[in-house]
Predict the structure of TRAP transporter, 4TM/12TM fusion protein.
Amino acid sequence: MAETSKQHEENKETIEAPQESSEQAQEAEGSDRSVFGWKAILILIISIALSLYHLYTAGFGLIVSTNQHLFIHLLAGLILIFLIFPRKKGLGQKTIVWYDMVLAGLVLVVGSFVMLNQTHQTILQGNMETSHMIAGVIMILLLLESARRVVGKPLLIIALVFIAYYFLGDYLPPPFGHSRANFEQFIYEMMYTSTGILGTPLSVSANYVFIFILFGAILEATGAGKMFIDLALRAVGHFRGGPAKASVVGSGFMGSISGSSVANAVTTGTFTIPLMKKVGFRPQTSGGIEVASSSSGQLLPPVMGAAAFLMIEYTPYSYAQIMISAIVPAILTYIAIIWMVHIEAVKHNIHGLPKESLVSGRKSLLQQGYLIIPIIALVYFVMAGNTVFNAAFYAIVMLLTVAILAHRLRARFGAGLLIAGVLAAVSYGMHHFFGWHLEISIMIAIGTFICVFFVLFQNKFKINSAPVKFGVRELTISLEMASRKALTVIAACATAGILIGIINLTGLSGSLPTIIIGFAGDQLIIVLFFTLIACLIVGLGLPTTATYVILASMIAPALIEMGVPIMAAHLFVLYYGVLADDTPPVNLPAYAVSGIARADPIITGVQGFKYDAGALLLPFVFVMNTIILFLPENQGMFAWYEIIWAMFTALVGILAFVTVIQNYMFVKYRWFEWILALSSALVFIYPAFISDIIGLALFALLLSIHLLRKRSIDRRSGAGTEVTA
């Protein structure tokens, strides 16, 4: 009897997300080296300095030249890579070995030499002395080794193939051959001009990506990740397969702002994967759902991962317009994953969690809802036309204000108000005497008001609340984690600069679109299909950033030449670049979560690809019919009902295609039903009213057949079980 009572009490225990740990996030970034003592302090100092440097430049502008700014970003990143990442995983190193200390020192000395000689007289004249060339060669080799360590062998192999293409162009047949190989010219362009390593990808990493990674790191330290998971569990956790649906929603929230699909998969997966397994999902399926949910966050505004910032440079659109164009496809993508999860739950009769065991959504919002305000501020500043880095800076100021004050106001209201007053006075004084932006004072004032309002409201209605303490320790961890998370992007963007430099130097950027169009015979669908294959192959094992840079330079121009709008062409390659990030056998998020799921990483990667493939046809849809992208050039061309119709048919097409992948709707498909579902999904790609009607008719027929089959099966079994949640 006592045992039954105890069991009942355990079932009543509230299920909520745990706090994230910095150790899990560090492990997620791919390093198994444990460092202690003065070497750990060295890593901490460099990481904090890099984060503070980028925070300052985002708010107040550069204090050095543009090239020196990029070099500071690159050199600090490479030094940290050699200090943090061993030459290979599995060595179990407890310290930084001597040769990695030498390589880090070499980066500092040689990199500083190259940086300081950017304005040397001979360099400005387009020539190099022997010392300049030797330093350039050493830096390229160090970069390639750092990329191998932090990103993996695939990016190194692709970089070496491109370098070989540059030097062996004389031996290749037309139209791929060229006679532009020159060793000195190669080193000069790669290291001393904006054509190569110091090109657009590294510039985007330094100017846009890092500051948003910092925003995400601080937000995680405030406990926002826990709040998002709690809200997601409350919203969908009690439905069929509830924990998996909560994983999709919660990981989508965090993935849209974290900037790291790997770290996001681990921090949210630590809680959601065990819950998914608890209700009946297989280990590899649980891991795959988390992988797909976390990676697809790169498609979801407001941050959209690093590749979206590159779109600012490769297209004529503002970041605000990119967000507007991406929002509907991103929502449809997440609907596809949720529908996939639902069918999986129906197939295996997996139920949700008891509603009474879940944290109240209202309670979560009343306790920590103030953390959503800085995200709203971020979107506001971007949409209001501020520069992207200024918008992120102002949002960080507000986020730090609410993070610092919330706990202190709750513990000692008077002391908290005093701290708020000091912050406001200092910021206004800096504005008055040193010209600081007035927006800084305004953000501090708004953050203070929000915190005071929440605390007074909580006290008035006796709401139990324990805001996450955010002090010097938490700020330090946030600054360090931001630098750690940025290392993959820094190495990938710098290496991508080599690839783009070679593409431009050899003339491949101009000839490849013509080659593709000629091969496809001016058939857009064929070009799109080849682009899909190219994305999956090029992106095998590469981060989305590198994949996008290559495809935006080589493939997107071919689509544009065939009449595809610029935005649609670049979103097309971005979407399949994200999907390629989940392509096995090299699927970094899958390797990160497989340990949590206790599943094979390859099989987990296959499952991640499967759950991400629900929206596989969506890019074809928005390229053929750009209504759902809300392009500025389409403004006023379509009525509201045409826009709703386009979104509705795209949704139905996705729902049909998900059932094709699952081979199941209400019961398992028979072969002709599978063909019927596939036909319905494919018909929606073509943008015409008659094709939409045919697609809807096919889907309605399929739905009717399956409802009748389901009822027949239920009658025969004598169990009229509910099919949907």
Notes: The longest helix spans residues 472-506.
